[in-house]
């Protein structure tokens, strides 16, 4: 397997967004059933892509884009954020996500802290971040403790809340 993680190019952007949306949609629908709602609207992807310090990566195996991540790098504080992370549908449980994350950490060795979040219902993600990547759960966002950056129309957690993860490097 020829694996690489590279900076996303404009020519891959449309497919990248489609693949990412499909992965988020499937994760939600596997738990809650089919929905007409879009779980990860394109505006949310664009928001991450346009954030100050944003870097978008794509994972490539044997010439095929198989996943991606958008990180936001604070070069001064080095408290960085993993905004969005996905492995293309149908490619899970092959070590791609772990390899992606390991490469992202290598690309940002100056990082002091990584932070991310995932919905309460996403057991696969929780296992991945805690048991495979070494993050710790540090907060539970819900109706009594909403996230400061959470859009009011956010539905991606299925109303069950979100875990915030942190990894001290």
Automatic annotation (TrEMBL):
Family matches, as Gene3D superfamilies: 3.40.630.30
Record-annotated N-acetyltransferase domain positions: 3-169
Top-level taxon of the source organism: Bacteria
InterPro entries per UniProt: Acyl_CoA_acyltransferase (IPR016181), GNAT_dom (IPR000182)
Annotated protein name in UniProt: GNAT family N-acetyltransferase
UniProt lineage: Bacteria, Bacillati, Bacillota, Clostridia, Eubacteriales
